[in-house]
């Protein structure tokens, strides 16, 4: 079909475009073969590239009818075809945004997808795919059309971003991934220092419209940081999602670093104006603000949880290690020393891991991060902080040993139960290893069970 569209005369293609467009579009939803759907999409793109602008607008009106239809499958079809229109028209698709953006806003509202708990699994799956298709369409629009910082689309985009913010922790992995990618596109259009400068200048001019990131910056930083940390914490985490979440958290850490500096300067100026009178210095509510130290501790806790609960999986620790390295580079030699005591424990724990199940690639990554921090702050400062952290870790281990010994004397029953639980866990782990390395034994058991007469 694609070769036919490229070789047929222009007039004939324009005349019969609708006869090809509708049945081929239906194949995108009805065909079970992934390969056939991909080839159909290529054929539709070839058709849209061949027809003239007026005929393409007529075909676009057909997909608008699908998007306004009550059936979920028709809306999914319309979202996929609209994505093909974006790929073909590129920046020229902007004249369709007045029709498309309100539809996207309507279809991605969280209230439409949160009330499906009592529905059948197939219905819930259909709505999840529709949500994914709509967010993917928006992702294509943002890549091709310059709408992120365009004042013309602020009123349309602000409620859309509020909905996407709630989908960051959506139960479906694909929805989480595309939501995180959308925020990555949003962050890439704002430099951290310019965002704060723009926010401070616009706060003085209340008449000027504010975009999503400029409204309640500090609260938004705390909410987004917690959401992307939740993505790292989730068992649904994949490598692709982890990489995108880390990119977003790197950007947020840069903005938070600047807000920390602003708040410190403001506190110093206020104290100077009050002539050192601490009673008249306004207090900052630490529960309503966010600082970089909190974010570093939160990410290090995720690495520690994975190391203690599931040592065979390394995706969270690798993500945290990459993030810590990026934060160290951004902080530089002046600011990094005051955060290094929080950043070193997970890196040292991973790099010095001598257990048989230790991942060599992860150890190498952690060692590279340590070498990077050493080169930034210098050997003397690094060695001093390293010694302090190592001493704190050793003291903590000693305290645990002493507390266990004291518990065995003061509460022998509790200590005995803990020991029995530990031994039981070792037996279960040994059984799992035997089953894993001797699959024939497992198959033999199943074979005997088949002969049991009930």
Mean pLDDT: 84
Number of strands: 0
Instruction: Report helical residue fraction.
Output: over 70%
Instruction: Tell me the major beta sheet.
Output: none
Report on the architecture of this protein:
There is one protein chain. By secondary structure, this protein is mainly alpha-helical. It contains 20 helices and no strands. The radius of gyration is 28 Å and the shape is globular. Mean pLDDT is about 85; it is low at about 440-454.
Notable traits:
single chain, 454 residues, mainly alpha, 20 helices, 77% helix
Would you kindly provide a brief summary of this structure?
77% of the residues lie in helices and 0% in strands.
SSE diagram, text form:
Layout: H1 2-7, H2 10-30, H3 34-50, H4 53-67, H5 72-89, H6 97-107, H7 110-114, H8 121-144, H9 154-167, H10 173-188, H11 192-204, H12 217-233, H13 239-273, H14 292-309, H15 315-335, H16 340-351, H17 360-377, H18 379-410, H19 412-437, H20 439-450
């Amino acid at each position: 079909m694609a070769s036919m569209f490229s070789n047929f005369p222009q007039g004939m293609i324009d005349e019969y475009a609708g006869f090809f467009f509708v049945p081929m579009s239906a194949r995108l939803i009805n065909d079970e073969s992934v390969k056939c759907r991909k080839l159909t999409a290529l054929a539709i793109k070839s058709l849209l590239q061949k027809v003239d602008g007026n005929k393409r607008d007529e075909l676009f009106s057909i997909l608008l009818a699908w998007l306004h239809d009550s059936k979920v499958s028709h809306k999914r079809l319309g979202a996929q075809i609209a994505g093909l229109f974006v790929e073909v028209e590129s920046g020229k698709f902007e004249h369709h945004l007045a029709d498309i953006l309100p539809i996207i806003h309507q279809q991605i509202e969280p209230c439409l997808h949160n009330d499906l708990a009592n529905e059948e699994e197939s219905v819930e799956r259909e709505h999840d795919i529709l949500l994914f298709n709509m967010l993917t369409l928006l992702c294509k629009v943002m890549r091709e059309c310059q709408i992120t910082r365009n004042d013309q689309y602020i009123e349309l985009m602000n409620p859309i971003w509020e909905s996407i913010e709630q989908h960051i922790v959506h139960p479906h992995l694909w929805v989480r991934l595309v939501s995180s990618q959308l925020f990555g596109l949003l962050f890439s259009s704002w430099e951290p220092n310019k965002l704060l400068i723009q926010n401070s200048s616009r706060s003085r001019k209340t008449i000027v419209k504010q975009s999503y990131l400029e409204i309640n910056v500090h609260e938004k930083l705390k909410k987004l940081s917690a959401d992307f940390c939740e993505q790292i914490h989730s068992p649904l985490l994949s490598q692709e999602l982890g990489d995108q979440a880390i990119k977003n958290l790197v950007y947020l850490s840069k903005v938070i670093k600047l807000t920390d500096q602003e708040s410190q300067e403001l506190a110093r100026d206020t104290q100077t104006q009050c002539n050192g009178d601490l009673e008249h210095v306004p207090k900052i509510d630490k529960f309503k603000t966010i600082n970089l130290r909190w974010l570093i501790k939160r990410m290090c806790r995720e690495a520690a949880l994975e190391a203690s609960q599931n040592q065979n999986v390394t995706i969270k620790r690798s993500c945290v290690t990459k993030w810590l390295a990026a934060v160290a580079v951004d902080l530089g030699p002046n600011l990094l020393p005051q955060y290094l005591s929080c950043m070193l424990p997970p890196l040292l724990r991973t790099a010095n891991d001598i257990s048989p199940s230790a991942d060599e690639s992860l150890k190498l990554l952690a060692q590279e991060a340590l070498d990077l921090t050493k080169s930034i702050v210098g050997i003397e400062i690094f060695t001093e902080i390293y010694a302090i952290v190592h001493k704190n870790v050793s003291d903590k281990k000693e305290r645990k040993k002493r507390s266990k010994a004291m518990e065995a004397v003061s509460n022998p029953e509790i200590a005995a139960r803990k020991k029995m639980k530990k031994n039981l866990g070792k037996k279960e782990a040994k059984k799992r290893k035997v089953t894993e390395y001797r699959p024939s034994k497992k198959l033999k058991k199943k074979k005997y069970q088949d002969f049991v007469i009930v």
